[in-house]
Design a protein that fits this description.
single chain; about 150 residues; alpha+beta; seven-stranded antiparallel sheet; 3 helices; about 45% strand
């Protein structure tokens, strides 16, 4: 199944891409998820999280591709250890320049053990990524204010 969510933000794409770091990830994570490892968005980097409830599960992805082109940068993570009967996971994190602003694109492909379960997961992932739209804007605004000396992140 495929999910694509576009999140426009009023900043330069290069600055936004550089802001996609451990701090942003922790800001966007729900309270029931703990970040155990973050190597950064470089090929071979690992990100590992643990779901604390309702049941303890681990989710590990590996960065398999990073690309920088004029007007666009992205990295791809692929599932190494994924829970909830997911058998394939690929998430492309894209930041594009679109006129005077950037667009963050979460392009996700996943496959589950059966179609019914995939539909249930789709709904959960879809709403989770939709919620990131607001999270991205809030985090980047705080980061910009911090860089301008107005507040802390």
């Amino acid at each position: 199944m495929k999910i694509v969510v576009r999140s426009p933000v009023p900043y330069d794409y290069k600055w936004v891409y550089e802001a996609m770091n451990r701090d942003m990830l922790e800001y966007l994570m729900p309270s029931n998820v703990e970040l155990l490892r973050y190597d950064g968005p470089e090929v071979g980097g690992i990100v590992k999280v643990r779901f604390k409830f309702p049941v303890k599960r681990y989710w590990t992805v590996k960065i398999t591709e990073v690309k920088h082109e004029p007007g666009c940068s992205y990295f791809v993570d692929e599932g190494v250890e994924v829970p909830f009967s997911i058998v394939a996971w690929k998430h492309q994190h894209i930041v594009e320049q679109d006129g005077q602003h950037a667009v963050i694109i979460d392009d996700v492909y996943f496959k589950a053990t059966n179609p019914l379960w995939a539909g249930v997961l789709y709904l959960g992932f879809f709403f989770s990524f939709k919620a990131r739209k607001r999270g991205y804007r809030k985090y980047l605004l705080k980061k910009m204010e911090h860089e301008q000396g107005n507040t802390t992140v």
